[in-house]
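Q: For a teaching session next week I want to show students how multiple molecules come together into a single three-dimensional assembly. I've collected the sequence lines for a complex. Could you give me the predicted structure tokens for the whole thing so I can convert them for display?
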Amino acid sequence: MIDVRDLALDAPDGRLLLEGLDLAMPRGGHVLVSGPSGCGKTRLLRVLAGTERPARGQVRIGGREVWPGGGVLALDGHVRLGFAFASGGLLSNLSLRDNVALPLRFLGLPTQDQERRTGEALERLDLVAVAGLRPHAVSASARKHANLARVLALEPELILLDDPLEGLDAADRGLAQELIRAWAMDASRTLVVTAEEDQGFAFLDAERLQMAPISLSQEPP
Amino acid sequence: MAFLARLGAPVRGFLEFLGDQAHLVLRTLRHALLLRMGQLGVVGGQTKLQIRFTGLDALWLVSGTALLLGAVTLIQAFSQLSGLGAENYIGVLMVLIILRELGPLLTAVLVIGRSSTAIAAELGAMQLNGEVDALAVHGVNPYQYLLLPRWLGVLISVFVLVVFFDTLALAGGLLVAKLKYGVTFGFYLESVRQSLSNRDFLATLLKVVLFAGAITFHACHFGLRIQRSQTEIPQAVTKTVVSALVAVFALDGFIAALFYF
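A: Of course. Below is the structure for the complete assembly, covering every listed component.
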């Protein structure tokens, strides 16, 4: 599902965050990327999602070339992606319900299916009571859950989760963990999760990829 | 060499900008052709929102401006023409000034002030909040969901607003002509009608299409280039206004030369 060759990522100031990464993940594979804040975990996820160009290297998703190439649009619907952002990522002019439903509408699913899948996802993430509110009107946990609900409703083949447990209280964390565990047990879904520490992911039988902190001794070019 | 280098940088920047604009337009057109039936409802809904904001919400502003402009133009023109005994030419002047030039041009300026600024700021904020990336990742093509509805919405709105502006400006002129100078309704309309030609309609239509494209794609270009911080948003808005105004005036000159030179 994921085939990464000789990947290099650079920080906005030009310093290299990652160099020469090779990663091959079959369908149903899982990887947990951990490392301190600022080491490039989110950037790696964005590169895999095709929304950010790497400094160097090749990324193929489901056999289609994402980099070098046209990024996420090169997938052209052939591989369904789900990305739960650590923060942001929800359309601020739509309610949480519409945020979850929009990708389904764009897929052209029948209205009944859209409503059923949206409703189930909102219910599973305990968002029914706030589903009519816009992202700015709900808590950070609810926004995080809405990101997960959008992924859940879309039923993607490749799931990218950016620090999905960060900032959640015990109850909310439990809901998210339960969902991630279910995804991990589903052999049809490939899962890439990032986290500062892998404590909350003991349940996840995944390959571990530890990213190093950015070297302060390295001068920006 | 240093002089050439100094000259080269802005020229290269301008050419790159034109290339980016062409790229944006072509990709939007390409993705518009790839729209599926099931997606038309979503794109249509977004287009309606854009028409409401750019067209309907601007009607009062455009009406007031058009009425005043029509009245003032007629007062100025009539006072000159009557001195020369050439009152019959009032229609020619109204068509020349209002329909050919100021109608489309001032409508475009008002739309730039109201809508292109809003589009640039909105897209910039969406870019910063990761919303554009989120759309693309989840299969909602940004060209189809963000750019195409804005383009269509601005195009339809500019067309309607230009027709509205021209009609109300002529009405403002008629009001003054009748109340102050005793010109009859029939005489005024006949004078305007005789001065109009198919060329004027074609030129206005071309202006509407090109102005709407320039307004939308300048706003989208500068809005979507925002990458790092909130402080880029006002800068993008300013660049959008300046750049879109220059483009609209340049296109106006080009069309005038093409049709009337």
